[in-house]
């Protein structure tokens, strides 16, 4: 029982930390309708910057802020390629992701860098008092979520949402859609890099391949959250993303307890979860529509027979 509780608390903690990345993915994929693959690179950028600065003796808080700034720059470059370079959004993200692999390797100087024994934003804490750290992390994530909600209700945030809904329409009202796209993609990758930094500190190392598959994990969190908790309002949608990230981590942890599954199957499990989360709601809506059509046809046939 103790082992299960430890596993679940660890999954919730990881889910909360990865929720920052999922919120970033939500901004590009749901709000901007922008297929940004920069995420796989900017996640590693955040971890690499934090690891290098902490090893160099800088404050872990300063290192975290620098990681956030690095993500903002990476996202703005992707936005510039798309908005000003007129390069397809998907291709812009792929190009930046490829470029970031070499940049991240330059930042790290080697394939991985340890943070064991270094001061990080996570203080050393006894195992039986781990729940206190979990509460602090949850409060911080909620504050960040509320700040994002507040931003999306400002004039700039509303322009950002309108750009994703109908860029031509908002452009006809005088809004600069290029600027909103750049800001949106930049903010998204800033959150992703922030997540990469805190994950690197939590796990005790930064690795050049730590960002591989992050875009799929982020999408899984968004899709699961929306399917389970809904997304009718901004507040509810961002909350659903955070909860979806936690649910995703718990599902993966439970799946890995199955005897014939190994830790190397995480990516496969993620893909299956995303497929199920995409297919089930669509199949459910299709089944409901068919039932309604069948019911209407029966009612019509009954009314015609009674004439």
From TrEMBL:
Keywords associated with the record: Cell membrane, Membrane, Transmembrane, Transmembrane helix
Q: Which Pfam families match?
A: BPD_transp_2
The keyword Transmembrane helix is assigned to this record: yes
Coiled-coil regions listed: none
* Record field: transmembrane: 12-32, 61-83, 90-109, 129-148, 182-202, 208-230, 237-256, 268-288
Q: Check the record and name the CDD domains matching this protein.
A: TM_PBP1_branched-chain-AA_like
Q: Write down the superkingdom of origin.
A: Bacteria
Where located? Cell membrane
Q: How does it sit in the membrane?
A: Multi-pass membrane protein
PANTHER family in alphabetical order: ABC TRANSPORTER PERMEASE PROTEIN YPHD-RELATED-RELATED, BRANCHED-CHAIN AMINO ACID TRANSPORT SYSTEM, PERMEASE PROTEIN
In Swiss-Prot or TrEMBL terms, this protein is called ABC-type uncharacterized transport system, permease component
Organism (species) = Thermobacillus xylanilyticus
The record lists the lineage as:
Bacteria, Bacillati, Bacillota, Bacilli, Bacillales
């Amino acid at each position: 029982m103790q082992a299960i509780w430890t596993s679940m608390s660890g999954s919730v903690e990881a889910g909360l930390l990865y929720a920052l990345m999922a919120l970033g993915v939500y901004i590009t994929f749901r709000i901007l309708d922008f297929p940004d693959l920069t995420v796989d690179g900017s996640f590693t950028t955040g971890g690499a910057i934090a690891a290098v600065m902490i090893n160099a003796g800088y404050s872990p808080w300063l290192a975290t802020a620098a990681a956030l700034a690095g993500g903002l720059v990476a996202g703005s470059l992707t936005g510039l390629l798309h908005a000003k370079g007129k390069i397809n959004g998907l291709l812009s993200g792929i190009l930046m992701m490829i470029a970031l692999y070499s940049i991240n390797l330059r930042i790290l100087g080697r394939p991985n860098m340890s943070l064991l024994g270094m001061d990080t934003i996570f203080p050393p804490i006894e195992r039986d008092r781990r729940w206190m750290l979990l509460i602090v992390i949850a409060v911080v994530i909620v504050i960040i979520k509320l700040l994002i909600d507040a931003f999306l209700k400002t004039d700039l945030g509303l322009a950002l949402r309108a750009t994703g809904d109908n860029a031509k329409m908002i452009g006809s009202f005088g809004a600069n859609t290029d600027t909103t796209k750049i800001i949106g993609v930049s903010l998204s990758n800033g959150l992703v890099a922030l997540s990469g930094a805190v994950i690197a500190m939590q796990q005790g190392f930064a690795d050049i391949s730590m960002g591989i598959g992050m875009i799929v994990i982020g999408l899984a969190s968004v899709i699961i959250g929306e399917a389970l908790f809904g997304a009718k309002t901004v507040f509810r949608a961002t909350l659903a993303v955070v909860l979806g990230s936690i649910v995703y981590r718990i599902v993966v942890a439970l799946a890995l307890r199955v005897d014939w599954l190994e830790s190397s199957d995480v990516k496969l499990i993620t893909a299956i979860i995303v497929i199920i989360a995409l297919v089930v709601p669509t199949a459910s809506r299709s089944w409901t529509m068919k039932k309604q059509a069948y019911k209407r046809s029966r009612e019509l046939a009954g009314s015609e027979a009674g004439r």
